[in-house]
Specification:
The chain is α+β, with helices and mostly antiparallel strands. Helix content is about 60%, strand content about 10%. It starts with a helix and ends with a helix.
Length: about 650
Protein backbone atom coordinates (compact mmCIF):
# COMPACT_ATOMS: atom_id res chain seq x y z
CA UNK A 1 0.00 0.00 0.00
CA UNK A 2 2.88 2.36 0.81
CA UNK A 3 4.49 1.90 -2.60
CA UNK A 4 1.08 2.24 -4.25
CA UNK A 5 0.59 5.67 -2.62
CA UNK A 6 3.95 6.84 -3.94
CA UNK A 7 3.28 5.54 -7.47
CA UNK A 8 -0.16 7.17 -7.51
CA UNK A 9 1.32 10.48 -6.34
CA UNK A 10 3.82 10.36 -9.21
CA UNK A 11 1.08 9.49 -11.73
CA UNK A 12 -1.16 12.36 -10.56
CA UNK A 13 1.78 14.76 -10.62
CA UNK A 14 2.58 13.77 -14.21
CA UNK A 15 -1.07 14.16 -15.24
CA UNK A 16 -0.92 17.67 -13.77
CA UNK A 17 2.24 18.34 -15.78
CA UNK A 18 0.50 17.04 -18.91
CA UNK A 19 -2.39 19.46 -18.35
CA UNK A 20 0.12 22.28 -17.87
CA UNK A 21 1.72 21.31 -21.17
CA UNK A 22 -1.69 21.42 -22.85
CA UNK A 23 -2.46 24.83 -21.35
CA UNK A 24 0.94 26.20 -22.37
CA UNK A 25 0.39 24.86 -25.89
CA UNK A 26 -2.89 26.79 -26.11
CA UNK A 27 -0.96 30.07 -25.89
CA UNK A 28 1.66 28.94 -28.41
CA UNK A 29 -0.62 27.52 -31.09
CA UNK A 30 -2.15 30.93 -31.77
CA UNK A 31 1.10 31.69 -33.61
CA UNK A 32 2.75 28.37 -34.45
CA UNK A 33 2.58 24.62 -34.06
CA UNK A 34 3.58 23.76 -30.46
CA UNK A 35 6.69 21.52 -30.62
CA UNK A 36 5.49 19.01 -28.03
CA UNK A 37 8.85 17.30 -27.63
CA UNK A 38 10.74 20.53 -27.02
CA UNK A 39 8.05 21.79 -24.64
CA UNK A 40 8.01 18.59 -22.60
CA UNK A 41 11.82 18.42 -22.42
CA UNK A 42 12.01 22.08 -21.41
CA UNK A 43 9.47 21.48 -18.63
CA UNK A 44 11.33 18.39 -17.43
CA UNK A 45 14.69 20.16 -17.37
CA UNK A 46 13.17 23.33 -15.89
CA UNK A 47 11.53 21.48 -13.00
CA UNK A 48 14.75 19.60 -12.32
CA UNK A 49 16.71 22.86 -12.36
CA UNK A 50 14.27 24.49 -9.92
CA UNK A 51 15.06 21.69 -7.47
CA UNK A 52 18.73 22.68 -7.38
CA UNK A 53 18.80 26.47 -7.99
CA UNK A 54 16.84 29.36 -6.41
CA UNK A 55 14.59 32.09 -7.85
CA UNK A 56 12.72 29.62 -10.10
CA UNK A 57 15.41 30.01 -12.74
CA UNK A 58 14.21 26.73 -14.20
CA UNK A 59 11.36 28.67 -15.81
CA UNK A 60 13.85 30.97 -17.52
CA UNK A 61 15.65 27.87 -18.80
CA UNK A 62 12.28 26.44 -19.90
CA UNK A 63 11.68 29.56 -22.00
CA UNK A 64 15.22 29.52 -23.41
CA UNK A 65 15.27 25.81 -24.30
CA UNK A 66 11.83 25.75 -25.92
CA UNK A 67 12.33 29.13 -27.60
CA UNK A 68 15.47 27.94 -29.36
CA UNK A 69 13.28 25.32 -31.02
CA UNK A 70 10.34 27.57 -31.88
CA UNK A 71 9.83 29.51 -35.08
CA UNK A 72 9.15 32.73 -33.15
CA UNK A 73 12.16 32.43 -30.86
CA UNK A 74 13.10 32.86 -27.23
CA UNK A 75 11.27 36.16 -26.69
CA UNK A 76 7.98 34.58 -27.72
CA UNK A 77 8.59 31.53 -25.53
CA UNK A 78 9.44 33.73 -22.54
CA UNK A 79 6.23 35.71 -23.07
CA UNK A 80 4.14 32.51 -23.01
CA UNK A 81 5.94 31.27 -19.87
CA UNK A 82 5.23 34.61 -18.17
CA UNK A 83 1.55 34.24 -19.08
CA UNK A 84 1.57 30.64 -17.83
CA UNK A 85 3.08 31.67 -14.49
CA UNK A 86 0.73 34.64 -14.21
CA UNK A 87 -2.23 32.26 -14.16
CA UNK A 88 -0.43 30.14 -11.54
CA UNK A 89 0.09 33.25 -9.42
CA UNK A 90 -3.67 33.80 -9.26
CA UNK A 91 -4.37 30.17 -8.32
CA UNK A 92 -1.64 30.02 -5.65
CA UNK A 93 -2.90 33.30 -4.16
CA UNK A 94 -6.37 31.74 -3.88
CA UNK A 95 -4.87 28.55 -2.42
CA UNK A 96 -3.04 30.42 0.35
CA UNK A 97 -6.12 32.53 0.98
CA UNK A 98 -8.01 29.32 1.74
CA UNK A 99 -5.19 28.07 4.00
CA UNK A 100 -5.00 31.38 5.87
CA UNK A 101 -8.79 31.59 6.24
CA UNK A 102 -8.87 28.00 7.55
CA UNK A 103 -6.01 28.81 9.96
CA UNK A 104 -3.99 25.96 8.44
CA UNK A 105 -0.25 26.51 8.31
CA UNK A 106 -0.67 29.50 10.63
CA UNK A 107 2.04 32.15 10.38
CA UNK A 108 3.76 30.69 7.29
CA UNK A 109 0.47 30.42 5.41
CA UNK A 110 -0.61 33.93 6.41
CA UNK A 111 2.77 35.40 5.40
CA UNK A 112 2.65 33.64 2.03
CA UNK A 113 -0.98 34.65 1.53
CA UNK A 114 -0.08 38.31 2.11
CA UNK A 115 2.84 38.01 -0.31
CA UNK A 116 0.70 36.50 -3.06
CA UNK A 117 -2.09 39.04 -2.49
CA UNK A 118 0.42 41.85 -2.97
CA UNK A 119 2.07 40.12 -5.95
CA UNK A 120 -1.25 39.46 -7.70
CA UNK A 121 -2.47 43.00 -6.98
CA UNK A 122 0.84 44.44 -8.25
CA UNK A 123 0.63 42.48 -11.50
CA UNK A 124 -2.98 43.49 -12.05
CA UNK A 125 -2.08 47.12 -11.26
CA UNK A 126 0.78 46.97 -13.76
CA UNK A 127 -1.58 45.63 -16.41
CA UNK A 128 -4.06 48.42 -15.66
CA UNK A 129 -1.33 51.08 -15.79
CA UNK A 130 0.02 49.61 -19.02
CA UNK A 131 -3.46 49.84 -20.53
CA UNK A 132 -4.16 53.39 -19.31
CA UNK A 133 -0.75 54.81 -20.19
CA UNK A 134 0.12 52.57 -23.12
CA UNK A 135 1.32 55.42 -25.36
CA UNK A 136 3.77 56.76 -22.77
CA UNK A 137 5.04 53.27 -21.96
CA UNK A 138 5.57 52.53 -25.65
CA UNK A 139 7.62 55.70 -26.07
CA UNK A 140 9.71 54.84 -22.99
CA UNK A 141 10.28 51.36 -24.42
CA UNK A 142 11.42 52.88 -27.71
CA UNK A 143 13.87 55.19 -25.93
CA UNK A 144 15.31 52.36 -23.84
CA UNK A 145 15.76 50.07 -26.84
CA UNK A 146 17.22 52.91 -28.93
CA UNK A 147 20.24 53.07 -26.61
CA UNK A 148 21.56 49.92 -28.31
CA UNK A 149 22.57 49.09 -31.88
CA UNK A 150 19.89 48.09 -34.37
CA UNK A 151 20.40 44.34 -33.79
CA UNK A 152 19.88 44.53 -30.02
CA UNK A 153 17.21 47.21 -30.43
CA UNK A 154 15.20 44.89 -32.68
CA UNK A 155 15.45 42.04 -30.16
CA UNK A 156 14.23 44.30 -27.35
CA UNK A 157 11.34 45.78 -29.32
CA UNK A 158 10.39 42.36 -30.64
CA UNK A 159 10.24 40.92 -27.10
CA UNK A 160 7.97 43.69 -25.79
CA UNK A 161 5.82 43.48 -28.93
CA UNK A 162 5.52 39.72 -28.42
CA UNK A 163 4.66 40.10 -24.74
CA UNK A 164 1.95 42.67 -25.53
CA UNK A 165 0.40 40.52 -28.23
CA UNK A 166 0.59 37.31 -26.22
CA UNK A 167 -1.49 38.89 -23.46
CA UNK A 168 -3.76 40.64 -25.97
CA UNK A 169 -4.39 37.51 -28.02
CA UNK A 170 -5.32 35.39 -25.01
CA UNK A 171 -8.89 36.28 -25.99
CA UNK A 172 -8.41 34.00 -28.99
CA UNK A 173 -7.99 31.04 -26.65
CA UNK A 174 -11.04 29.07 -25.58
CA UNK A 175 -11.50 30.27 -21.99
CA UNK A 176 -13.54 27.22 -21.07
CA UNK A 177 -10.64 25.00 -22.13
CA UNK A 178 -8.08 27.13 -20.23
CA UNK A 179 -10.27 27.11 -17.12
CA UNK A 180 -10.81 23.36 -17.32
CA UNK A 181 -7.10 22.70 -17.82
CA UNK A 182 -6.14 25.04 -14.97
CA UNK A 183 -8.66 23.58 -12.52
CA UNK A 184 -7.82 20.03 -13.58
CA UNK A 185 -4.09 20.67 -13.33
CA UNK A 186 -4.33 21.98 -9.77
CA UNK A 187 -6.76 19.28 -8.68
CA UNK A 188 -4.24 16.66 -9.82
CA UNK A 189 -1.34 18.56 -8.26
CA UNK A 190 -3.06 18.88 -4.87
CA UNK A 191 -4.19 15.26 -5.09
CA UNK A 192 -0.60 14.25 -5.78
CA UNK A 193 0.67 16.31 -2.82
CA UNK A 194 -1.93 14.69 -0.57
CA UNK A 195 -0.94 11.17 -1.65
CA UNK A 196 2.75 11.96 -1.22
CA UNK A 197 2.06 13.33 2.27
CA UNK A 198 0.15 10.12 3.08
CA UNK A 199 3.09 8.10 1.73
CA UNK A 200 5.52 10.02 3.94
CA UNK A 201 3.29 9.49 6.96
CA UNK A 202 3.32 5.74 6.25
CA UNK A 203 7.10 5.96 6.51
CA UNK A 204 6.75 7.49 9.95
CA UNK A 205 7.14 11.15 8.99
CA UNK A 206 4.88 13.91 10.27
CA UNK A 207 4.76 15.49 6.77
CA UNK A 208 1.26 16.77 6.04
CA UNK A 209 -0.30 18.25 2.91
CA UNK A 210 0.23 21.80 4.14
CA UNK A 211 3.98 21.18 4.63
CA UNK A 212 4.27 19.96 1.04
CA UNK A 213 2.45 23.06 -0.25
CA UNK A 214 4.57 25.38 1.91
CA UNK A 215 7.82 23.73 0.79
CA UNK A 216 6.86 24.23 -2.87
CA UNK A 217 5.04 27.59 -2.89
CA UNK A 218 5.69 29.54 0.31
CA UNK A 219 7.29 32.97 0.17
CA UNK A 220 10.65 31.52 1.25
CA UNK A 221 10.58 28.88 -1.52
CA UNK A 222 10.78 31.53 -4.25
CA UNK A 223 14.34 32.61 -3.49
CA UNK A 224 15.53 29.16 -2.42
CA UNK A 225 15.82 25.92 -4.32
CA UNK A 226 13.57 23.02 -3.35
CA UNK A 227 16.69 21.20 -2.18
CA UNK A 228 17.63 24.08 0.13
CA UNK A 229 14.09 24.33 1.50
CA UNK A 230 14.10 20.64 2.30
CA UNK A 231 17.57 20.76 3.83
CA UNK A 232 16.67 23.75 6.00
CA UNK A 233 13.51 22.08 7.28
CA UNK A 234 13.25 19.67 10.18
CA UNK A 235 13.01 16.74 7.76
CA UNK A 236 15.46 13.90 8.31
CA UNK A 237 17.75 12.75 5.53
CA UNK A 238 15.40 9.95 4.44
CA UNK A 239 12.53 12.41 4.03
CA UNK A 240 14.75 14.77 2.04
CA UNK A 241 15.75 11.94 -0.28
CA UNK A 242 12.13 10.91 -0.87
CA UNK A 243 11.20 14.55 -1.61
CA UNK A 244 14.04 14.68 -4.14
CA UNK A 245 12.84 11.48 -5.80
CA UNK A 246 9.25 12.77 -5.83
CA UNK A 247 10.35 16.03 -7.47
CA UNK A 248 12.89 14.67 -9.95
CA UNK A 249 11.44 11.32 -11.04
CA UNK A 250 8.60 12.87 -13.14
CA UNK A 251 11.20 15.04 -14.90
CA UNK A 252 13.27 11.98 -15.78
CA UNK A 253 10.20 10.10 -17.04
CA UNK A 254 8.98 13.08 -19.13
CA UNK A 255 12.39 13.61 -20.69
CA UNK A 256 12.76 9.90 -21.48
CA UNK A 257 9.28 9.79 -23.02
CA UNK A 258 10.27 12.37 -25.62
CA UNK A 259 13.04 10.08 -26.84
CA UNK A 260 10.76 7.14 -27.62
CA UNK A 261 9.94 6.27 -31.21
CA UNK A 262 6.18 6.40 -30.60
CA UNK A 263 6.40 9.97 -29.28
CA UNK A 264 8.57 11.25 -32.15
CA UNK A 265 6.26 9.60 -34.72
CA UNK A 266 3.16 11.30 -33.30
CA UNK A 267 5.01 14.63 -33.10
CA UNK A 268 6.02 14.46 -36.78
CA UNK A 269 2.46 13.64 -37.84
CA UNK A 270 0.93 16.54 -35.91
CA UNK A 271 3.60 19.05 -36.97
CA UNK A 272 2.53 18.69 -40.62
CA UNK A 273 -0.99 19.97 -39.88
CA UNK A 274 -1.65 23.54 -41.07
CA UNK A 275 -3.21 25.35 -38.13
CA UNK A 276 -3.78 28.71 -39.82
CA UNK A 277 -1.48 30.39 -37.33
CA UNK A 278 -1.25 34.14 -36.84
CA UNK A 279 2.03 35.95 -37.46
CA UNK A 280 3.55 37.78 -34.52
CA UNK A 281 5.47 39.92 -37.00
CA UNK A 282 4.50 39.33 -40.62
CA UNK A 283 7.60 41.11 -41.96
CA UNK A 284 10.35 38.64 -42.87
CA UNK A 285 13.07 41.23 -43.41
CA UNK A 286 14.62 42.51 -40.17
CA UNK A 287 14.86 46.06 -41.48
CA UNK A 288 11.12 46.04 -42.25
CA UNK A 289 10.45 44.61 -38.77
CA UNK A 290 12.49 47.37 -37.13
CA UNK A 291 10.75 50.09 -39.14
CA UNK A 292 7.32 48.74 -38.17
CA UNK A 293 8.23 48.35 -34.47
CA UNK A 294 9.73 51.86 -34.37
CA UNK A 295 6.42 53.18 -35.72
CA UNK A 296 4.46 51.08 -33.21
CA UNK A 297 6.43 52.14 -30.14
CA UNK A 298 6.45 55.79 -31.22
CA UNK A 299 2.67 55.56 -30.52
CA UNK A 300 1.89 58.29 -33.05
CA UNK A 301 -0.98 56.56 -34.87
CA UNK A 302 -2.21 53.73 -32.59
CA UNK A 303 -5.54 53.16 -34.34
CA UNK A 304 -3.94 52.91 -37.78
CA UNK A 305 -1.23 50.56 -36.52
CA UNK A 306 -3.84 48.41 -34.79
CA UNK A 307 -5.78 48.08 -38.05
CA UNK A 308 -2.58 47.42 -39.98
CA UNK A 309 -1.69 44.65 -37.54
CA UNK A 310 -5.13 43.09 -38.00
CA UNK A 311 -4.82 43.25 -41.80
CA UNK A 312 -1.47 41.48 -41.89
CA UNK A 313 -1.81 38.94 -39.06
CA UNK A 314 -2.34 35.87 -41.25
CA UNK A 315 0.41 36.49 -43.81
CA UNK A 316 4.17 36.64 -44.22
CA UNK A 317 5.58 39.84 -45.69
CA UNK A 318 8.46 38.92 -47.97
CA UNK A 319 9.43 42.40 -49.11
CA UNK A 320 8.27 45.99 -48.79
CA UNK A 321 7.91 47.26 -52.36
CA UNK A 322 6.58 50.71 -51.45
CA UNK A 323 7.95 53.60 -53.46
CA UNK A 324 6.96 57.22 -54.01
CA UNK A 325 3.51 57.41 -52.45
CA UNK A 326 1.78 57.29 -49.08
CA UNK A 327 0.28 53.88 -49.89
CA UNK A 328 2.25 50.78 -48.88
CA UNK A 329 2.86 47.90 -51.28
CA UNK A 330 4.02 44.55 -49.90
CA UNK A 331 4.96 41.25 -51.51
CA UNK A 332 3.17 38.74 -49.28
CA UNK A 333 2.54 35.05 -48.88
CA UNK A 334 -0.13 33.08 -47.07
CA UNK A 335 -0.59 29.33 -46.84
CA UNK A 336 -1.94 29.18 -50.41
CA UNK A 337 -0.19 31.72 -52.65
CA UNK A 338 2.00 34.76 -53.09
CA UNK A 339 0.42 38.14 -53.83
CA UNK A 340 0.97 41.88 -53.63
CA UNK A 341 -0.94 43.77 -50.95
CA UNK A 342 -1.54 47.50 -51.17
CA UNK A 343 -3.13 49.56 -48.39
CA UNK A 344 -3.48 53.13 -47.13
CA UNK A 345 -5.36 54.97 -44.38
CA UNK A 346 -7.28 58.21 -44.03
CA UNK A 347 -7.18 60.54 -47.04
CA UNK A 348 -4.64 58.25 -48.70
CA UNK A 349 -7.06 55.36 -48.19
CA UNK A 350 -9.77 57.27 -50.05
CA UNK A 351 -7.30 57.93 -52.84
CA UNK A 352 -6.45 54.22 -52.96
CA UNK A 353 -10.17 53.40 -53.10
CA UNK A 354 -10.36 55.57 -56.22
CA UNK A 355 -7.48 53.57 -57.67
CA UNK A 356 -9.34 50.34 -56.92
CA UNK A 357 -12.48 51.69 -58.59
CA UNK A 358 -10.43 52.64 -61.67
CA UNK A 359 -8.95 49.13 -61.91
CA UNK A 360 -12.43 47.61 -61.67
CA UNK A 361 -13.93 49.98 -64.26
CA UNK A 362 -11.12 49.47 -66.82
CA UNK A 363 -10.45 45.76 -66.33
CA UNK A 364 -11.78 45.01 -69.81
CA UNK A 365 -10.07 47.94 -71.51
CA UNK A 366 -6.37 47.37 -70.83
CA UNK A 367 -4.19 44.56 -69.48
CA UNK A 368 -4.36 45.33 -65.75
CA UNK A 369 -3.31 43.61 -62.54
CA UNK A 370 -5.83 41.07 -61.25
CA UNK A 371 -7.38 42.16 -57.96
CA UNK A 372 -8.11 38.98 -55.98
CA UNK A 373 -9.33 40.53 -52.72
CA UNK A 374 -10.26 43.97 -51.50
CA UNK A 375 -11.47 45.58 -48.31
CA UNK A 376 -12.41 49.16 -47.58
CA UNK A 377 -14.09 51.40 -45.05
CA UNK A 378 -14.25 55.11 -44.32
CA UNK A 379 -10.87 54.78 -42.58
CA UNK A 380 -8.80 52.65 -44.95
CA UNK A 381 -8.60 50.73 -48.22
CA UNK A 382 -6.71 47.54 -48.96
CA UNK A 383 -6.53 45.25 -51.97
CA UNK A 384 -4.46 42.24 -53.03
CA UNK A 385 -3.07 41.71 -56.54
CA UNK A 386 -2.18 38.32 -57.98
CA UNK A 387 1.54 37.58 -58.17
CA UNK A 388 2.76 36.27 -61.53
CA UNK A 389 5.98 34.30 -61.15
CA UNK A 390 7.07 34.90 -64.76
CA UNK A 391 6.53 38.66 -64.64
CA UNK A 392 8.84 41.53 -63.72
CA UNK A 393 8.64 45.29 -63.65
CA UNK A 394 9.70 46.96 -66.89
CA UNK A 395 12.87 48.38 -65.32
CA UNK A 396 14.17 44.88 -64.56
CA UNK A 397 12.84 43.48 -67.83
CA UNK A 398 14.56 45.94 -70.16
CA UNK A 399 17.87 45.52 -68.34
CA UNK A 400 17.78 41.72 -68.56
CA UNK A 401 16.48 41.31 -72.15
CA UNK A 402 17.64 42.52 -75.56
CA UNK A 403 16.74 46.15 -76.19
CA UNK A 404 14.39 45.04 -78.99
CA UNK A 405 12.25 43.26 -76.38
CA UNK A 406 11.91 46.53 -74.46
CA UNK A 407 10.94 48.35 -77.64
CA UNK A 408 8.23 45.75 -78.32
CA UNK A 409 6.78 46.28 -74.85
CA UNK A 410 6.89 50.07 -75.22
CA UNK A 411 5.30 49.93 -78.68
CA UNK A 412 2.54 47.59 -77.49
CA UNK A 413 1.92 49.81 -74.47
CA UNK A 414 1.71 53.03 -76.49
CA UNK A 415 -0.69 51.54 -79.02
CA UNK A 416 -2.92 50.03 -76.31
CA UNK A 417 -3.08 53.23 -74.28
CA UNK A 418 -3.63 55.47 -77.31
CA UNK A 419 -6.09 53.20 -79.11
CA UNK A 420 -8.07 51.67 -76.21
CA UNK A 421 -7.85 53.95 -73.17
CA UNK A 422 -7.49 57.49 -74.49
CA UNK A 423 -10.54 57.09 -76.73
CA UNK A 424 -12.80 56.70 -73.68
CA UNK A 425 -14.68 59.87 -72.71
CA UNK A 426 -12.51 61.92 -75.10
CA UNK A 427 -13.30 65.65 -74.96
CA UNK A 428 -11.53 68.98 -75.52
CA UNK A 429 -9.78 70.52 -72.54
CA UNK A 430 -11.64 73.40 -70.86
CA UNK A 431 -10.08 76.55 -69.45
CA UNK A 432 -11.56 76.12 -65.96
CA UNK A 433 -9.98 72.70 -65.36
CA UNK A 434 -6.67 73.86 -66.85
CA UNK A 435 -6.66 76.85 -64.47
CA UNK A 436 -7.40 74.65 -61.44
CA UNK A 437 -4.75 72.16 -62.57
CA UNK A 438 -2.10 74.89 -62.87
CA UNK A 439 -3.05 76.38 -59.50
CA UNK A 440 -3.00 73.07 -57.59
CA UNK A 441 -0.24 71.19 -59.38
CA UNK A 442 2.12 73.99 -60.41
CA UNK A 443 1.70 77.16 -58.35
CA UNK A 444 1.12 75.45 -54.99
CA UNK A 445 4.02 73.06 -55.49
CA UNK A 446 6.34 75.84 -56.65
CA UNK A 447 5.48 77.75 -53.48
CA UNK A 448 6.36 74.67 -51.41
CA UNK A 449 9.71 74.40 -53.19
CA UNK A 450 10.54 78.10 -52.90
CA UNK A 451 9.65 78.10 -49.19
CA UNK A 452 11.65 74.98 -48.36
CA UNK A 453 14.45 75.32 -45.82
CA UNK A 454 16.08 72.21 -47.29
CA UNK A 455 16.52 73.93 -50.66
CA UNK A 456 16.91 77.52 -49.42
CA UNK A 457 20.63 77.85 -50.17
CA UNK A 458 20.39 76.12 -53.55
CA UNK A 459 17.57 78.44 -54.61
CA UNK A 460 19.74 81.48 -53.93
CA UNK A 461 22.04 80.74 -56.89
CA UNK A 462 21.40 81.74 -60.51
CA UNK A 463 22.98 78.53 -61.79
CA UNK A 464 23.60 75.08 -60.35
CA UNK A 465 26.38 72.63 -61.10
CA UNK A 466 24.83 69.16 -61.25
CA UNK A 467 27.33 66.34 -61.59
CA UNK A 468 29.90 68.85 -62.93
CA UNK A 469 27.56 70.33 -65.55
CA UNK A 470 26.07 73.82 -65.28
CA UNK A 471 22.30 74.43 -65.45
CA UNK A 472 20.06 77.47 -65.10
CA UNK A 473 18.42 77.41 -61.68
CA UNK A 474 14.64 77.23 -61.29
CA UNK A 475 14.09 80.90 -60.30
CA UNK A 476 15.76 81.94 -63.57
CA UNK A 477 13.21 79.80 -65.46
CA UNK A 478 10.21 81.20 -63.57
CA UNK A 479 8.58 82.55 -66.74
CA UNK A 480 8.08 78.97 -67.97
CA UNK A 481 5.73 78.36 -65.04
CA UNK A 482 3.61 81.49 -65.33
CA UNK A 483 -0.09 80.49 -65.32
CA UNK A 484 -0.83 82.38 -68.56
CA UNK A 485 2.05 80.68 -70.36
CA UNK A 486 1.06 77.20 -69.15
CA UNK A 487 -2.61 77.78 -70.00
CA UNK A 488 -1.58 78.52 -73.59
CA UNK A 489 0.62 75.40 -73.73
CA UNK A 490 -2.17 73.11 -72.42
CA UNK A 491 -5.07 74.72 -74.31
CA UNK A 492 -4.96 72.21 -77.16
CA UNK A 493 -4.94 69.11 -74.94
CA UNK A 494 -7.53 66.36 -75.30
CA UNK A 495 -8.98 65.05 -72.04
CA UNK A 496 -10.12 61.44 -71.61
CA UNK A 497 -9.71 58.43 -69.34
CA UNK A 498 -6.05 58.14 -68.35
CA UNK A 499 -3.88 55.91 -66.19
CA UNK A 500 -2.22 58.90 -64.53
CA UNK A 501 1.02 57.26 -63.32
CA UNK A 502 2.49 55.50 -66.34
CA UNK A 503 6.11 55.32 -65.15
CA UNK A 504 8.35 52.38 -66.00
CA UNK A 505 7.96 50.93 -62.48
CA UNK A 506 4.18 50.63 -62.95
CA UNK A 507 4.49 48.59 -66.16
CA UNK A 508 4.77 44.85 -65.51
CA UNK A 509 6.21 42.77 -68.36
CA UNK A 510 5.14 39.19 -69.02
CA UNK A 511 6.85 36.70 -71.31
CA UNK A 512 9.10 37.85 -74.15
CA UNK A 513 6.65 38.91 -76.85
CA UNK A 514 5.75 42.40 -75.65
CA UNK A 515 3.16 41.29 -73.11
CA UNK A 516 2.47 43.60 -70.18
CA UNK A 517 -0.06 44.72 -67.62
CA UNK A 518 -0.38 47.94 -65.62
CA UNK A 519 -0.58 48.61 -61.90
CA UNK A 520 -1.14 51.63 -59.62
CA UNK A 521 -3.26 54.08 -61.64
CA UNK A 522 -3.59 57.63 -60.33
CA UNK A 523 -7.03 59.04 -61.22
CA UNK A 524 -8.22 62.46 -60.16
CA UNK A 525 -5.71 64.79 -61.81
CA UNK A 526 -8.20 67.67 -62.36
CA UNK A 527 -7.01 68.16 -65.95
CA UNK A 528 -7.25 64.58 -67.28
CA UNK A 529 -5.17 65.13 -70.41
CA UNK A 530 -3.96 62.11 -72.33
CA UNK A 531 -0.57 63.82 -72.39
CA UNK A 532 -0.15 63.17 -68.66
CA UNK A 533 0.41 59.48 -69.43
CA UNK A 534 3.07 60.19 -72.05
CA UNK A 535 4.67 62.72 -69.69
CA UNK A 536 4.98 60.02 -67.03
CA UNK A 537 6.89 57.88 -69.53
CA UNK A 538 9.11 60.91 -70.11
CA UNK A 539 9.72 61.28 -66.38
CA UNK A 540 11.16 57.77 -66.49
CA UNK A 541 12.96 57.62 -69.84
CA UNK A 542 13.88 61.32 -70.10
CA UNK A 543 14.30 62.26 -66.43
CA UNK A 544 15.69 58.92 -65.21
CA UNK A 545 13.36 58.82 -62.19
CA UNK A 546 13.95 55.13 -61.41
CA UNK A 547 17.73 55.57 -61.28
CA UNK A 548 17.32 58.38 -58.78
CA UNK A 549 15.07 56.18 -56.66
CA UNK A 550 17.88 53.62 -56.53
CA UNK A 551 20.56 56.20 -55.61
CA UNK A 552 21.06 56.37 -51.86
CA UNK A 553 23.28 59.40 -51.32
CA UNK A 554 23.62 62.95 -52.61
CA UNK A 555 26.21 65.61 -51.83
CA UNK A 556 25.46 69.35 -51.79
CA UNK A 557 28.30 71.88 -51.62
CA UNK A 558 27.32 75.48 -52.28
CA UNK A 559 25.73 75.52 -55.73
CA UNK A 560 26.94 72.00 -56.59
CA UNK A 561 24.80 68.87 -56.40
CA UNK A 562 26.57 65.56 -56.94
CA UNK A 563 25.15 62.05 -56.98
CA UNK A 564 25.76 58.78 -58.78
CA UNK A 565 23.58 58.98 -61.88
CA UNK A 566 23.84 55.56 -63.52
CA UNK A 567 21.45 56.15 -66.39
CA UNK A 568 21.70 53.19 -68.78
CA UNK A 569 22.11 52.99 -72.56
CA UNK A 570 18.82 51.07 -72.66
CA UNK A 571 17.01 54.12 -71.27
CA UNK A 572 18.65 56.30 -73.94
CA UNK A 573 17.51 53.87 -76.64
CA UNK A 574 13.93 53.74 -75.38
CA UNK A 575 13.84 57.53 -74.95
CA UNK A 576 14.82 57.90 -78.61
CA UNK A 577 12.11 55.37 -79.52
CA UNK A 578 9.57 57.41 -77.55
CA UNK A 579 10.59 60.67 -79.25
CA UNK A 580 10.16 59.05 -82.66
CA UNK A 581 6.68 57.92 -81.62
CA UNK A 582 5.80 61.46 -80.53
CA UNK A 583 7.02 62.96 -83.79
CA UNK A 584 5.00 60.41 -85.76
CA UNK A 585 1.71 60.77 -83.89
CA UNK A 586 1.61 64.31 -82.45
CA UNK A 587 2.09 67.88 -83.63
CA UNK A 588 5.04 69.97 -82.33
CA UNK A 589 2.65 71.89 -80.05
CA UNK A 590 1.31 68.63 -78.62
CA UNK A 591 4.86 67.35 -78.03
CA UNK A 592 5.62 70.62 -76.23
CA UNK A 593 2.58 70.07 -74.00
CA UNK A 594 3.77 66.55 -73.18
CA UNK A 595 7.19 67.83 -72.09
CA UNK A 596 5.60 70.56 -69.97
CA UNK A 597 3.40 67.97 -68.28
CA UNK A 598 6.61 66.12 -67.39
CA UNK A 599 7.76 69.24 -65.54
CA UNK A 600 4.44 69.29 -63.69
CA UNK A 601 5.05 65.68 -62.61
CA UNK A 602 8.45 66.68 -61.19
CA UNK A 603 6.83 69.61 -59.38
CA UNK A 604 4.19 67.30 -57.90
CA UNK A 605 6.92 64.95 -56.65
CA UNK A 606 8.96 67.58 -54.80
CA UNK A 607 6.72 68.36 -51.75
CA UNK A 608 6.48 64.63 -51.01
CA UNK A 609 10.26 64.23 -51.19
CA UNK A 610 10.85 67.33 -49.06
CA UNK A 611 8.48 65.95 -46.45
CA UNK A 612 9.40 62.26 -46.50
CA UNK A 613 12.97 62.12 -47.82
CA UNK A 614 14.62 65.47 -47.10
CA UNK A 615 18.11 63.95 -47.21
CA UNK A 616 17.75 63.04 -50.89
CA UNK A 617 15.38 65.87 -51.87
CA UNK A 618 18.20 67.94 -53.49
CA UNK A 619 18.78 65.09 -55.95
CA UNK A 620 15.14 65.13 -57.07
CA UNK A 621 15.28 68.91 -57.26
CA UNK A 622 18.28 68.44 -59.56
CA UNK A 623 16.09 66.13 -61.68
CA UNK A 624 13.50 68.90 -61.95
CA UNK A 625 16.16 71.47 -62.89
CA UNK A 626 17.74 69.23 -65.55
CA UNK A 627 14.34 68.46 -67.11
CA UNK A 628 13.34 72.15 -67.02
CA UNK A 629 16.61 73.17 -68.71
CA UNK A 630 16.05 70.62 -71.47
CA UNK A 631 12.48 71.87 -72.04
CA UNK A 632 13.74 75.45 -72.04
CA UNK A 633 16.46 74.68 -74.59
CA UNK A 634 14.09 72.62 -76.71
CA UNK A 635 11.07 74.94 -76.84
CA UNK A 636 11.73 78.36 -75.26
CA UNK A 637 15.29 79.45 -75.95
CA UNK A 638 15.47 81.99 -78.76
Amino acid sequence: MTVFLFVCSIVLLMVGHALRLMRWSCFIKIYEHPPAGALLRSMALGYALNFFVPFKLGDVFRAYYSGKRMKNGIGFSLATVILDRFLDLIVVALLFAVLAFSNVGRDAARESARFYYIAAAAVLALLLIANLFSSAIKRITLRLCSVFNDHIKLKGERFFWTLINTFRDIRRVNFAVILAETVGMWVFYIGSYALFAAFMQRLGSDYALVEIILSLFSRSSLDLSALTVAASSSAVLKEQLWLAVYTLLPSVIMFAATLTKAFTTVEKQTSSVDGGYLKILPQLDEKDQLNFLDDYFSADHPELLRKLTQLNRGISIIRDCSSGSNASTLLCMDSHEMFYRKYAFGADGKKLAGQLDWLTAHSGTLPLCEVIRSERSSEYCCYDMRYESDSSCMFQYIHSHPVQAGERVLSSLLESVRGRLHVLNARPADAEHISRYISAKVTDNLNSIMGSRVLAELLSYDTLTINHKEYLNLPYLASMFEPEHLAAVFAGDTCCDIHGDLTVENIICTGGDGGFYLIDPNPGNIHESSFLDYAKLLQSLHGGYEFMMKTDSVSVTGSSIDFVYTRSAVYDRLYSFLLCYFEEHFTPQEVKSIFYHELVHWLRLMPYKLRKDARRAPMFYAGLVMAANDVYNRFEKN
